[in-house]
Structures are given as C-alpha cells and as structure tokens.
From TrEMBL:
UniProt protein name: Bifunctional diguanylate cyclase/phosphodiesterase
Positions of the EAL domain: 24-278
Extent of the signal sequence: none
Stretches that traverse the bilayer: none
Domain of life of the organism encoding this protein: Bacteria
Length: 289
C-alpha cells in the first residue's frame, strides 16, 4: 500500500515500500507514454432532459487502453495520477480532445448542446487556469457556450477562495460550471451559494437507493428543492431503472444520466445517438460556429 500526499510527495507505506514505489513509478512512466502513444481515449455519456427524454448534453469520461493490461478505469488511475502529480497532463489532454471532437461534430452538422469535462482540484486551482481554458477554446475555434466543467464538491472546498475566483473568470467567459458528486461532501448549499455555479449533479449513491432508502429519497428531494430555490440546474447521476426515473419525474428533477438511458459510449456510437436526436441538430453551416 502506498500513498503520495500533496505536492511534497510524502510516502506512506504499510508493507513493501519498494514494490509500491516502483509500482507508482512505473504507472507514472506508463501514463506519460499513454498520452504520447494515444492510449487515452474519451467515451461520452448523454445527459437527458427528464421531461422530454431529449439529450441536452454529453459528459466526456477518460478511458485508458493500456498496451499490456488492457482497459484501466479512471476510478483506478485518476486518483493515482493525482497523487503522482500527473493529473494536469491528463485533464489538459481531455479538454483539448473533447473540444476538438465537439468542433468536428459541429462542422459535420450535429453536436450536443454542450460537452462536459471533469477537472481535478489541483488543475482548477492553478492561477492561470481560466487562460488555459481560453486558449484551448481558441485553438479549436469552439464557442465557450459548448463547454461545461465539472468539479467535485470536495475539490472546490479544498481551496475555496482560489476556486471562486477561477470559476468567476470561467463563468464570465461563458463556460458552464457544475458541481459533481454533490451530497458526498460536507458543504451546505448556502455555503455553496458563494460559488458561481450553474448546475448540481447529485451523487449516484443517493440516486441508487432512492426507492429503497427513505432517507436518501428525502435527501434527493431536498437537494432538488434547494437547487430550484437557488436557480441551479440539477442532474441526477447513476439512474439505472425506470422506478428511479419516475421518482425524479415526480419530484421535478431537471436532467439525469445513467445506464438506464445509456452507458458512456465511444465517439462513433455517441455520434449515432446525436445524429438521431434531430432536436439537437445544429445548423449545417460550420462558419456559424
Ligand atoms: P463522475 O464524473 O462522477 O462520472 C460518473 C461515473 O459513473 C462514470 O464512471 C460513469 O461511467 C459512471 N456511471 C454513469 N452512469 C452510471 C450508472 O447508471 N450506474 C453506474 N454504476 N455507474 C454509472 P467512470 O467513467 O469510471 O469515471 C469515474 C470517475 O473518474 C468520474 O466520476 C470522474 O470523477 C473521474 N474522471 C473520469 N474522467 C476524468 C477526467 O478526464 N479527468 C478527471 N480529473 N477525472 C475524470
Ligand atoms: Mg463527472
Ligand atoms: Mg459524479
Ligand atoms: Mg465520481
């Protein structure tokens, strides 16, 4: 077991330190290679309007196809990349690729209203972060209204003054901001009001047990109501069945994501989805974008 903490890279270990340290080093070098060798790829999961059933956005989720070990899930390598101080390279690649892909789809005449990328705490806390985003948008000639950034509740709490400033810059640029995994941290919604955010994404742990755990149902209802009072959009994550969707409809939750509608899909498959969803087709003239 091995953990690298923060910027000063303090190692904690319980068994074979060398083995763990080597593991981390090899992961670090293979992650570097992964970026160079195009082993990273993006899958996209639709965000769906609860009332109409139409797609109102997509979320880019990184996938790593390791040369020897096969697919490695972001749940595994993102935390390690954060600990090894490598997350910035991944998040940069993801944002660039998501913007490039969205622009390409727009040129072909269709795209989702918006593409969301997940950004780690250390990334958004950089002083020049909003400039970095601006450059990526400019390089891809993508209007800022197509980009959404998801940051977890816990990550914005870590360094709230910095984050609020950066988020204000991003918001005034026209980027949409969402709080991911909402409900898992300890922030009150009234505290969160200081953050210039557009949407809350309710963590899937609450959504999953909405029909079995009465207290989770109450939490979800309360989040929906408070978000409404604060004029925030709400997205329920991890919807896997019709029962849960019915609950969300009854309680007027705006949007949802989950395997019930679609798992995250590779670009060619999500493209199919988007091209069928004529409602969200964009103007054929790429010069307009
Ligand atoms: P997240 O942003 O909260 O993404 C939701 C996760 O739930 C995704 O897992 C998605 O595949 C999964 N999911 C969606 N619907 C369902 C469902 O109905 N049931 C279940 N059981 N799961 C569902 P994934 O793709 O493995 O990503 C895990 C986490 O890794 C993400 O959580 C996000 O925090 C992080 N991540 C993914 N891509 C990136 C990235 O490019 N940068 C950073 N910094 N983090 C990323
Ligand atoms: Mg997310
Ligand atoms: Mg989430
Ligand atoms: Mg998550």
């Amino acid at each position: 077991y091995c953990k690298v903490r923060g910027r000063d890279h303090v190692l904690l270990y319980s068994d074979d330190m060398n083995q763990s340290y080597n593991h981390l080093l090899s992961l670090e070098s293979s992650l570097r290679k992964a970026i160079l060798n195009n082993e990273l790829t993006l899958h996209y999961q639709p965000k769906v309007d609860v009332r109409t059933g139409g797609i109102n956005g997509i979320e880019a989720l990184v996938r790593w196809n390791h040369a020897e070990n096969g697919w490695i899930s972001p749940g595994e390598f993102i935390p390690l990349a954060e600990e090894a101080g490598m997350i910035s390279q991944i998040d940069e690649w993801v944002m660039g690729e998501a913007c490039r892909q969205t622009k390409e789809w727009l040129k072909q005449g269709f795209a989702a209203e918006r593409v969301a990328v997940n950004v780690s705490a250390t990334e958004i806390q950089q002083e020049n972060y909003s400039n970095k985003v601006k450059k990526v948008l400019e390089q891809n000639k993508l209007p800022s209204s197509y980009l959404e950034i998801e940051v977890t509740e816990n990550s914005v709490m870590q360094n709230s003054t910095e984050c609020i400033r950066t988020m204000q810059e991003l918001k005034s640029m026209g980027v949409t901001l969402s709080i991911d995994d909402f409900g898992t941290g300890y922030s009150s919604l009234s505290y969160l009001r200081q953050f210039p955010i557009h949407n809350l994404k309710i963590d899937q742990t609450f959504i999953k047990s909405v029909k079995t755990g009465p207290s989770d149902a109450e939490i979800v209802k309360a989040i929906i109501q408070m978000a409404d009072a604060f004029k925030l959009g709400v997205v329920a994550e991890g919807v896997e069945c019709e029962n849960v969707l019915a609950f969300l409809r009854e309680n007027q939750c705006e949007s949802y994501q989950g395997y019930y509608f679609s798992k995250p899909l590779p670009p060619n498959e999500i493209k199919e989805f988007l091209s069928k969803s004529t409602k969200y087709r964009h103007n054929k003239n790429p010069n307009l974008h």
